[in-house]
Each structure stands twice: as structure tokens, then as C-alpha cells.
Amino acid sequence: MYLIQFTKTAKKFLKKIPHEDTEVILRKIYLIRESPFRYLKKLQNSKLWRLRILKYRAVVDVVVSRNNIIVLRIGHRKKVYD
Description:
There is one protein chain. With 82 residues, the chain is an alpha+beta fold. The chain has helices spanning 8-16, 19-31, 36-39; strands at 3-6, 41-42, 49-53, 56-63, 68-76. Strands 1-5-4-3-2 form a five-stranded mixed beta sheet.
């Protein structure tokens, strides 16, 4: 099982959006702890991965050697990759 860690940027975004969306996002992120690569898709020309959640995307880094998933950014699908 992987350990989930959030950056300050990701936490800050979760505080800004509606509570219902926050619950769905957190539920989905904690769901991937068992088998992350089943749900994640690799970003082009990057070592990072993305997770689709409603109209939002989470950009994560998976450190397999330490069993860590680091949530770098969460944002609306149009703006998160900027």
C-alpha cells in the first residue's frame, strides 16, 4: 500500500473548492493507494502522472522505491497543466 502525501499547493486548492468536490477528490485519491497505476495515466514528456476526478485533475509523482504517492497539484482540467 502506498502512502499519500499532499503539497501545500494541493492542500490550498482543496480548501478553495466546494466541500462536496473535496470529498470526492480525496476519496478517489485514497482509492488509488492499493494499485495506483491502474488509475493513473502518464503525462507526456514527464515523469509525472495524472488522475482524472470529475472536472478536476490531480498531478502526482509516484516514488515506487518508497511506496509514496505525492500529490503535487490539483486543479480544474483546463488550468492544472499550465
